[in-house]
Amino acid sequence: MSERTLTADMPAPLLEMRGVSKSFPGVKALDQVDFTVYPGEVLALVGENGAGKSTLMKILSGVYTMDEGEIFFEGKPITISGPLASQRAGISIIYQELNVLNNLNIAENLFVGREKVGKNGLVDRQRTHREARALLDEVKLSLDTRTLMGRLSTAQKQMVEVARALSFNARLIIMDEPTSSLTDTETRTLFDITRRLKERGVAVVFISHRMAEIFQISDRVTVMRDGQMISSFQTGETTEAEIISAMVGREVDSLYDKSDAEIGEMALEVKNLSSRDGYLQDISFSVRAGEILGFAGLVGAGRSEVMRAIFGIDPRQTGDIFVRGKKAVINGTTDALRHGMGFVPEDRKEQALILNMTVKKNMSLAALDRVSNGWFVDKARENTLVDRFVALLRVKTPSAEQMVKNLSGGNQQKVVIAKWMANEPSILILDEPTRGIDVGAKKEIHRLMAELASQGVAIIMISSELPEIIGMSDRIIVMHEGRIKGEFPHRNVTQEQIMQMAVS
C-alpha cells in the first residue's frame, strides 16, 4: 500500500522514493515501497523489527543499493551510489548503533574525512576546534572538543553524532532511535534542536518505538510492515492504538502482560557491594525466586555497573554475594554461570553477540554443555534447542544458519535472550531488554519474562522506560549516582514518584 497522494495544500515533496524493492538471500526486505517526505516536517517512521525501516533508510543513506525503484530529491531524480553521494545530495543519518572513532577526539570525529585544511595544506586545528565548539553549543553539550570519544558516555556520543549531522547542513536528517540512550533532559534538548531544524525547512525522519515521543515531536506517522508501506497518518488525527494495530496487523491489548507469580525462596542476596573505582557505594538488595525486581534510575546512575559486578565482569572492592542462601565466590563470568546466573547486557553488539556467527551458534553458545556429548556438539540436540527458541521468540530469520549480523536489531536482541534462556538460569539479569524493540516484540518478551517468573526464575530488570518498570516489576529499586536511593515495595507507584527519587 502506498502513501496518500499529494493534496493541493501540501508543498512539493522534498523526497520521493517510488517502487523501491530490495532482497537479501532468503528474504524480501522491501516490496514496492513508496515513501514521501515534505520540507520542514518531522515524519515518524514506525514498524516492528524486520519491517524494513532500516533497510529503506540504508538505501537512502547509500549503504545499500536498491534492486529496483526511483528516488527523487527536491523534484529531481538522483542516484545514491554510496554514503558520500547521499551526503552530497543533502541527506544525513544518525544510526542507532553509533558510528564513532573512540581513539579520536570530538573535533576530529565531527570533521573526519573533511578536515579543515589551511593554506599550507595542513589541518588547521584552531579552526577545527572553533567550529566544533560552535556545533557542540548548538546541541548544548559543554565538553572540551579535545576530549577523546572513548571517554564519553553513550548519551554524550549520541549528541556528538547529532552535532555531526548538523555540520553537513543537510536538507533531510534521519534519526534512527536517537533517544534510546538519552536522559529526559538530553531528549528535550534533541527535540528543541529538531524543532529548530523544522523552522529552517529541514525535514527529519524520526525512527522510534516510543509512542509518547512520536506524538510529542512528529507531524506525520508512516507505518511499515513486512517490507511494505501500510499507511500514513497525520499525528494529530490518529491514536496510539491505531498506529500499533497498523504496525502488527492485529490489536495489541495490554503491553505489560504480567501475572503475579508465586514468590519463593531467596535466590540472590547482595550485601555491601562497592566498586574499585569508588563509584558504587554500599549496594545491598535481594531478589526471590519468581520475583521480577526492577532497577530504575537515570543514565549513569550505576545500575549496569552493579549487574556487571555481580556477574563477575567488573571487579568489586567490597561486597558479598549469596546464591540460594550460600555465599558464592564470583570472580568471573564462569563462576556466575556455575551458580545458575544469566546476563543479557545493554549493548547486544559489543557485549552479547558474535556477529559473524550464525543464529544457531549464538543461541547455543551459553548452553554447550546441554547440547554436547563429551567434546563434540550433538547437532540434532543443538538444532532442536535452537528451533524451539526461534519459534518461541518468533525470531524473523530465513534459517538458523543466517549470520546474526544480518538480522534486525530487535531480532538480534531476541537471539541474545534465547541464548541465556537456553541455559535455563535460575537468576536472570536483563539490562534494557526491550531497548530498540517494537511493541509486538516487547509484548512477547514481557510474556516470556512473566512465564519465566512463574517457573521460579528470579529476574532483575534494568529499564529506562518507567511504564515498563511499573508494569513488569514486583518491587522497584531506584539508584542515583552509584547508590541505592530507595525502594518501592509494590507496583502501586507513579512515574513521578520514581523520577523524584531518581533525581534527588
Output the keywords.
504 residues; alpha/beta; six-stranded mixed β-sheet; globular; disordered N terminus
Please report the number of helical segments.
17
| Largest sheet geometry | 6 strands, mixed
Number of beta-strand segments: 22
> Helices and strands: which structural class?
alpha/beta
What is the chains' assembly state?
single chain
The chain-level mean pLDDT equals 87
Helix content: 25-40%
Low-confidence segments, given as residue ranges, are 1-8
Rounded to the nearest angstrom, the radius of gyration is 24 Å
Identify the strand order in the major beta sheet.
6-7-8-3-9-10
Distance between the termini: 50 Å
Mass-distribution shape: globular
Description:
A hairpin with a 2-residue loop joins strand 17 (372-373) and strand 18. By secondary structure, this protein is an alpha/beta fold. The longest helix has 16 residues, at 184-199. It is built from 17 helices and 22 strands. The strands form five sheets. The chain has a six-stranded mixed sheet, with helices on both faces.
